[in-house]
Amino acid sequence: MTEAHAREAVRGWAESVRTAQRVLAASSADQRRAALRAAADLVRGRADTVLAANAADRAAASGLSSALADRLALTPARLEAIAAGLETVAALPDPLGRVLKRWERPNGLCFERVAVPIGVIAIIYESRPNVTAEAAALCLMSGNGCILRGGSEAARSNAALIACIEAGLAAAGLPTAALLVPSQDRAIVGSLLGAAGLIDLVIPRGGKSLVARVEAEARVPVLSHLNGINHVYVHKAADADIAERVMLDAKLRRTAVCGAAETLLIDAARPDLARRLVAALIERGCEVRGDAAVAALDARVRPASEADWGAEYLDAIIAARIVGGIDEAVAHVARHGSGHTDAIVTGDAAAAERFLGSVDSAIVLWNASTQFADGGEFGFGAEVGIATGRLHARGPVGLEELTTYKTLVRGTGQVRG
Amino acid sequence: MTEAHAREAVRGWAESVRTAQRVLAASSADQRRAALRAAADLVRGRADTVLAANAADRAAASGLSSALADRLALTPARLEAIAAGLETVAALPDPLGRVLKRWERPNGLCFERVAVPIGVIAIIYESRPNVTAEAAALCLMSGNGCILRGGSEAARSNAALIACIEAGLAAAGLPTAALLVPSQDRAIVGSLLGAAGLIDLVIPRGGKSLVARVEAEARVPVLSHLNGINHVYVHKAADADIAERVMLDAKLRRTAVCGAAETLLIDAARPDLARRLVAALIERGCEVRGDAAVAALDARVRPASEADWGAEYLDAIIAARIVGGIDEAVAHVARHGSGHTDAIVTGDAAAAERFLGSVDSAIVLWNASTQFADGGEFGFGAEVGIATGRLHARGPVGLEELTTYKTLVRGTGQVRG
Which of A184, B122, B140, B174 has the least C-beta neighbours within 10 A? Predict the structure, then answer.
């Protein structure tokens, strides 16, 4: 497909999705819920079809790494999780029509800020078929039209899942055109990213190169995160057991998630605790790359280079540094962090509040693991991703974050005169 | 200046503004208020200096049109309005630290979404020196650093006003570097627009070509509006007097503002009212360009072409069309509007609510003039512009819209395990 053809195709798709999206925006929550529940039933009822499609995808994608092959694979249990996920979203409070603010002016005008859908959202993602269902469910429940551009390696699985969701929409009397799967042609991604005025938001979900490309090329608003360079700062007034528990969970519960800790900052006043934390990490198979002060505590520590402070390992490796106090910790996070998620461990509430106030990341925690950076853990039911930009939404992007607002003004004939 | 030099210059400026902005973000509302009040006093105290700088600007800019020359001109009264504007912003509620939402999870984690500054904001604007003071005041009061790139024709006036605000910041013990005026070199605007990761938000304020350039080139988030193609829909149940009053104000109170109405839609059931409205407009010097049905009502109506439905006249011209009812009116607005501000006039509350619910513009009014599309009229005290994009802020951008949020999570040692 030429670029010009791809642009024209995207224009046509976006316009047809928008037309259907307007119907969705005007639909009742009950209707949207019914669509998602019907889709969940269909995912269960058509399990054999979906699993066969997935088997065909896996057979065709024989060259994948074992990690990617695992992400692509559907099992009966994973399919049930997908169906249950659709039902979870259907059970969430309706994000549309919420009155965010209401006020009156001396001239009698009544102002009301109400939540409305963003419009047409393009999700660009890689091989995990569960993203298809989750992203579609969140977009549709929030009244948004949705263009789902998944990876070609999962095309059959995605198509089978989307057929269930489309049938769910139809069963609820909603337009199936609110959901669209564009062609797998390579030119399409560029056209989606360039479709200013046609697509209202792009959300990339996948590896770093995909996110970097979207952030670099997009001419439409993007909600995304490229890095999660997250810090755990162990303050001098930290409880040692809490520090160890939080640190180990933040780093090692799962090392490949964006909420995993990548740097440990320890107060210089607690050399014994520092030694204990470093030993605990190393004994659990985590490589520790420390500054000179950390290296002096344990011979197994490897020297950190400047690059380690900005590294997102997504692996059992951690950078560790001794700092002189909160100000130094905050300055380190400001300089090297990625604005994703950072935590302090301390028994001193005033110190905690100072850290919470000064660290300008999407999520800042006190005495809790950075791995809580997750829409489910926030109580959002699901998330379509995590945003580290500064506008509109920061942190997990759930139903409410997929809405915007308009202002309604009710008068009785007022003019400015 | 070469492009590479401009990029380096912008990097340095943005970093120095960000360092100062962090101090501002941590300052008390009282300190920020004191800075703005001190600045207001200085604007009054240095009136002669500012007016002399403005006289020099006007002398140098002898080629300006009379409209532009008027926008550039400062008078003692306008200077007093600028000083009073600074005080108005200082008196507004602190937008920082507001708790937007608070919730708890079954594991005991307490979540709090709090308002924080966006960061470093670049305002790119044209000849009106009052924008300098208003934009700086709103940015500083909301804890944002601010790069003010005004037009070269107002450079001396802007510098004199900024000197007052910088002195106000210094008097309040706040860093003057939170406010920066870049060089007038032409390469700078492009570098500001390209400074992803360095500048968090660009707000253009000025003519259509400036806004169009910013929207087309920016690699950083933008809050802006290009067009205000605003509609007044006179429903069949409209009160005739209210319809006339609202229509005339919406179109003619000021024709060059973005909230001015550009299209009149009248229900086919009210030919007499349509005739009255058309006559009232024409008698006040407004050209009416109508469809065939409107033209049939009054011989003075000129024929509308397809282009008229998408025209932003910013002049005493209006496009007028007879529609078959709410659905047709809503469809017309969806097709031709710019998502800025649209109004319905009706005595039928159910019809009004249907219009308010179906028209997806930043501002939708019932029985009130579209010219209320203004931060002051919203009760925001001031505005740095109006946004018609779909993310973050829609409508007037005031103090609250210049903030974003972070999520604080307070725990007692919770891990995901």
Answer: A184
Residues B74-107: tens digit of each pLDDT: 999 999 999 999 999 999 999 999 999 999 999 9
- What tokens appear for B178 in the block? 């939170």
CB proximity list for B173: less than 8 A, separation 6 or greater? B31
Residues with Cβ < 8 Å from A411, sequence gap 6 or more? A108, A109, A110, B365, B366, B367, B368
Q: What is the CATH number of domain A3-224+394-410?
A: 3.40.605.10
Q: SS3 breakdown of chain B: % helix, strand, coil, rounded to 5?
A: 45, 20, 30
pLDDT band of A407, cuts 50, 70, 90:
very high
Contact B249/A352, CB-based, under 8 Å?
Answer: no
Q: What does CATH list as the number for B230-377?
A: 3.40.309.10
Angstrom CA distances, B195 to A9, A168, A210, B2, B242, stand at 31, 44, 21, 15, 49
How do the domains of chain A map onto residue ranges? 3-224+394-410, 230-377
Helix (H, G, I), strand (E, B) or coil at A120: strand
> Which residues 319-338 of chain B have a CB within 8 Å of chain A?
334
Contact between A315 and A289 under an 8 Å Cβ cutoff? The reply is no
Q: How many CB atoms lie within 10 A of CB B8?
A: 13
CA of B51 vs chain A CAs: smallest distance (Å): 31
- Position A77 scores a pLDDT of 97
pLDDT at A191: 96
User: What's the alpha-carbon Rg for chain A, to the nearest Å?
Assistant: 24
Residue A158 contacts residue A50 (beta carbons within 8 Å): no
| Residue B338 Cα, gap to closest chain A Cα (Å) | 11
Whether the predicted pLDDT of A160 surpasses 90: yes
Q: Which residues contact A317 (CB under 8 A, 6 or more apart)?
A: A286, A287, A288, A289, A311
Residue whose structure tokens are 């973050």: B392
Q: How far apart are CA B333 and CA B344, in angstroms?
A: 11
B142: Cβ contacts below 8 Å, ≥ 6 apart: B95, B96, B117, B118, B399, B400, B402, B403
pLDDT at A66: 83
Q: With left for phi above 0 and alpha for psi between -120 and 50, is residue B159 left, alpha or beta?
A: alpha
* Three-state secondary structure call for residue A391: coil
The closest alpha carbon to A163, from A181, A150, A183, belongs to: A181
Q: Do B391 and A196 touch (CB under 8 A)?
A: no
Query: Residue A111 corresponds to which tokens in the numbers above?
Result: 């102002």
Q: Mark yes or no for CB contact B379/A415 under 8 Å.
A: no
CB contact under 8 A, B245 and A391: no
Chain B residues in contact with A369 (beta carbon < 8 A):
414-416
Give the residue from A50, A233, A251 showing the smallest Cα distance to A133.
Answer: A50
Whether the predicted pLDDT of B62 surpasses 90 = no
- Residues in A closer than 8 angstroms to B371, CB to CB, are 415-416
